């Protein structure tokens, strides 16, 4: 992703070009592993629920638990660690992630898994707040936006490779083996960050009180955060339960589900790429087109029935639209508060991850008490609200 409408934090010590871009690559790998771990249960809900003897809705709380911690904890963590070297902090966050994945793989009870996911969520939220800023600081200022784009491409890579790969591994082994493998990958990324990312002193001087005062003083940021909440609630309320929906309505096999998740991810990568050019011309228009595409995709998925071609087309449109909206909302957030970089990102992270959690929670309640189809309508209502708010509000 890009942050064309933002200003990169000033840099004092720029490493060699090779070392700088290797550091950016390590930070990108960090985003990949954090996001893959957070959303891995999306592709594993059915086997997880069967293995642990719980409902699909309850299994979805794995996403909720990590999202709650990532969202609610990040403003405090970013403020409390404002004097800690950012390379040291990122290394510590990756260590927590590796341990959490390992504990999930060997946990004898679902309650312990949820507790572990909460701890992992704190680490995930802190990374989202500092990761892009770190990448922008270690390259020359005129390459800062390019570095941000490279790092945020980790979202598409995780969707294209990470989550479908986890589903594929589970289909041939077990969900526990899947999390054990990602524990090992987390360790590898830890060593990459420790060896490739240069030392970065913290440039965040915003206290907890000042972080929470930002949306009160900044009307543009406040509007953007409300839009983000509606979009994420709708998207993840539906996407978290895409596997049980396809199994119920299209009699989808694990292999077909893996394919459509890959299709979704490829679409997301393409949407991200295309939007990288359109956000410069019209940030508001890019978001509006992407949100409208999400609505079309959900409606098509609802009406496709058991037609596999229709399902694939719906997931392509869904992925393209998600990639577009994802890039636009990050740029919207950063452009609304360019002088308080990490603080704005911490609020974005709080809104985004808390909404992931609530989307999974509300979606799970709907699945268990109304039916899996209800999450599609839930997604359409919330995404429609985000679209209307963004189009109608000029602030």
What do you see in this structure?
With 395 residues, this protein is mainly alpha-helical. Helices cover 81% and strands 0% of the residues. The chain has helices spanning 17-39, 45-52, 56-59, 61-80, 86-106, 110-137, 144-172, 175-196, 208-217, 219-239, 242-249, 254-281, 283-303, 308-336, 341-369, 374-392. The longest helix has 29 residues, at 144-172. The protein is globular. The relative contact order is 0.17. Residues 1-12 have low confidence and may be disordered.
Secondary-structure map with pairings?
Elements: H1 17-39, H2 45-52, H3 56-59, H4 61-80, H5 86-106, H6 110-137, H7 144-172, H8 175-196, H9 208-217, H10 219-239, H11 242-249, H12 254-281, H13 283-303, H14 308-336, H15 341-369, H16 374-392
Helix pairs in contact: 1-6, 1-7, 1-8, 4-6, 4-15, 5-6, 5-8, 6-7, 6-15, 7-8, 7-12, 9-10, 10-14, 10-15, 10-16, 12-13, 12-14, 13-14, 13-16, 14-15
